[in-house]
Each structure stands twice: as C-alpha cells, then as structure tokens.
Write a structure and sequence with these properties.
4 copies of one chain form a homotetramer. With 149 residues, chain A is an alpha+beta fold. Helices cover 18% and strands 31% of the residues of chain A. β3 of chain B pairs antiparallel with β3 (70-77) of chain C, so a sheet runs across the interface.
C-alpha cells in the first residue's frame, strides 16, 4: 500500500486529511492495547474529515442522490497503541474515477512509530434505483474541482 | 429498584425475557472486566427479546406510527464480569400505561452473583407530528392483550 | 441533578472539564440520532479530561494502588443529537470525600439545546487486597490539593 | 479468498465453527444496515468459538505463554444486512504452521445471500520476551492434535 505518485495526471488533486486522536479506556483490550476492530472507528473519523474537506460528507452524498457504502477494507497492524498514547490518522484519496479508494496511516505519537496502515474502497449506489454505478457520478468530479473526461 | 408486585391489578401481564450472553474480548477493558458502558448493549439484546415476545420490536413500532426513544437509564454495578464468564440478562416490563419502563438484572453464571441491575424508560413519539405522547398509544395495549381503561 | 453550590466549603475546589466532540456516522442509529448507549463513551472522554486535569487519570490511579470502578450511572436524554451536529461534554466533580461523583451535561451546539445530563459514581478499590474503600484514599486529596480532614 | 482444499495433507484437521447471530439496533447505521466496522465484532465471536473448539481461546493462549495479536484483516462486503435479519458467521482455520489464518463467511439468513467474506491473520508473540515467533509454537500443534514436523 504505497502513497500513489500519479504519473499520468500531474494536475490531479492530492487530497488528504490528518486528525489527531486520543484512544480512550473503552478502546483498549485486556492486553492493554487498542482492540484491532476499534481502528475502523478511527479511520471513519479521518475519512469524514477528508470528505468534508471537499464538501462531500455523508449528508451531502445523500443529498446528491448517492450512497457510497464501503465494499472492501484492509488493515495491517504494525505496532500496538497503548492506553495514554496519542495518534494521528491520515486519510489520502487515491482513486476516484470509478470508485473511491482511500489509504490511511495511523501514527503513534508516543512511540514515533507507524501503528497501522489501511485502505477502504467505496462505490456509488444510486439512491433511487439502488443500482451500483460502474463509474463515479459527475457530482464527485465537481466536488473535487475536476472536469470529467 | 424492586421487581414490581402489582397489588391493584392481579391479572396484569407479567412480561419478561431472559437471554444468555457470552461477553467477548472486545467487551473487556484493561482491568480485565466488562467496560461499564458495554452493558447497555446487553440490555438492548434483552429488551429486544422482550419486545419481540409481544410483537412490538423496533420495526413494528415504526410501522405502528411511533418511535419509542429511551429517555432515561440507570445502572448499578454490583460485581464485575471477567473474560470467559457467561451471563444472563433478564428484562421485565414494569410500566406501560404512560411510558415503557423495563427493569433488568444481569446475573454472572460463573460466580453465581448478580452483576448489575438497571432500568430504562421509553416514551412514545408520534412519527408524523414528532410530538411526545403523554399516555401510551392504544397499539401498545393491543400488543399486550389488554383492554385500555 | 444540580450543579453543586458548595455552601459549607467556599474554598473547595470546583473542578470541571469541557470537551467538544463530533459524533460520527457509527454513533448514529437507524432513527438518525446518536444511539443512547454511545453517550457513555462521550462521558468517558470528558471524565478522562477532568481526571487528567489534576493528574489522576487511569494510569495514575493504577500507579497509586487503587482502581476506581464505576458503581452507578444515570442519564436523562433531553433532546436528540443528529448526524453532523457537534456537542460539548462538561464533566464536573461534585463529590470526592467517600466516592468520586461526577455530573455531566451534553450540549448540542447545532440546536443550542441541552442533549443529556448524567452522573457517574466511582469508588476506590485497593489494588492488592481487592477491598472497597469506605472513604477516598489520601492520594485523591493530595491530587486535588486538599488537606484531608 | 477460497475455502482451502488441502491437496498435500489429506489428514490435516479441517477446523471450523459456525455461529448464528442477530445483529442489534446498535449495530445498524443511518442507512438502515449494519455499519461496516461492526462486522469485526461478529468475526471475533466466530473466531472465539473456533479457538474454544480446540481449547485455545484467549485465556488458554495467555496461560501457554503466548499472545496472538491480529496483524492483518481483510473484508469484502457483498450484500448488506438490515435490521431484523439474522446471520451465520463461519470461521475456518486455513493456516497454522507459521501463523494463524482464519477465513470467514457471513451469510444473511433472511436474504439467503452471502453478506461478507473476510480473513484475519494472527502471529504468536512470546509473552515474556515480547518477541515475534516466526513459526507457530509447539502448543498450537498439540492443541490441534498434530505432531509437529
């Protein structure tokens, strides 16, 4: 999972958002570290910040006539996060033409080590027909300030 | 919080439901016991079983034209539940005329001790007017097999 | 549940902490509002900020030889919080001599209305003997900058 | 992600566990379907049942001197699960020699469709040295009733 270096589209938008979070007592398991499933909440916080940065958060998605459910997730757990350690979560938009793919990196500010890397894939579903869109709808390109090919 | 002994209405329905649950690794905190906030999920499982027993679960509530949001909760934590210990959760309907009050008891099957006792209060809200109902709507009495006074 | 106005101890510490939170998509239920059980996570964030403000968070509690489990919670749900609405959570220390009681208020910044009010009670347990303390241990008074009676 | 058909070791153990679950109100998001991150709790329930079936659940792992943290997860979301729909979660042990890899399938009993497929990878960490084990420790082979090569 590498940060994409777009060779064919040098003018493409490079959208990212980074948030700082303090995992809480309820995030931590009996081994004293954040339970692996709780990181998906942290990803959502960063994804939400990223989508809000170009005004296409959940409420705007719905208004635009599309749902964007997550169809795939992957996560690698590199080093644990213990109680009391702060993290940053960075979300980077890496694909948008046919689906929305976002890559993530969680960095442990206390240990100065990468904690996890992850990716999520979302596809557009027409709210009325409930049909899957094989290319991203025009509204996404507009929101990203791109003219669609 | 006592189990109600109805003196004035000996024929009143005594509705209750008991479920068995195995708290999981993700329910348990760094102290090795179930995190206090997670018990509200366990209550919901038992409440859902109780409401389903008289065919008035969430989907039927919505179909009947009412939402029943929770307006108050209380919980006393009597003894902890550790990883690997099974519990039962009992929900008892104790009020229905003007609001839905349910009392709960969580029992630790491994230690043979009561773990928590709790209560929740729900009131009906008309789905269309969004107004709160000061007495329970007729549909609740029907579902409970009661003729409304 | 009133904000305490200490008449007998005008020099007593008035400890409080307020945090701002953005409830996320995963906090919201099919009715479009924050699920009632999720507010306990929000309380924990504010409680943690309050305890940290006088250097007696979970890790320091454990180091001091005491656990402080929650033995009781209450919450009143006054008005809902919808997706996209920000909140503040205020935690106020209202009792400390024999137990730690904290009162909370969650305020909806979007609607300018109080969302919930709540309280939690914690008691000290000696980490080694596992016995409950009937008065708060000296360390709590030290942390609060108080001389114990 | 295919169910492994072991050609080279026809006598190898084929360990699996299937549980039935009822997703609850708190699992469901504003779109009316289970929030994608909540499936990781369902996986844990099935994984726990699988590991318990050969007496190597979390408590036995710890007793044996090893932690088995999850180092990677993947999930594909094939079709949604709505409120009121029951599911089965099947966990299948597909690798054990150097790491523990488990494949999962979640099946929607109401729609008769596959809901998600997933996998998790765990590696052994020596509890005392905190070092990662490059091959699975002997205890795992014993628990599986296998003689280690």
């Amino acid at each position: 999972m590498k940060i994409p270096i777009s060779k064919t589209a040098p003018s493409a938008p490079f959208r990212s958002a980074t948030i700082e979070l303090q995992p809480q007592f309820y995030d931590v398991d009996p081994m004293g570290v954040v339970w692996h499933g709780n990181y998906f909440r942290f990803l959502e916080c960063a994804r939400s910040a990223l989508l809000d940065s170009f005004h296409y958060g959940y409420l705007e998605m719905e208004k635009s006539g599309y749902f964007w459910p997550i169809v795939e997730t992957r996560m690698k757990y590199v080093s644990p996060v213990a109680l009391g350690q702060k993290i940053t979560v960075t979300a980077i938009l890496v694909e948008w033409e046919n689906r929305l793919r976002i890559d993530y990196e969680i960095f442990n500010l206390a240990t100065r080590r990468r904690a996890t890397k992850a990716q999520t894939t979302q596809i557009a579903i027409d709210k009325h027909s409930r049909e899957m869109c094989f290319t991203s709808p025009a509204i996404l390109f507009e929101k990203l300030g791109l003219s669609q090919k």
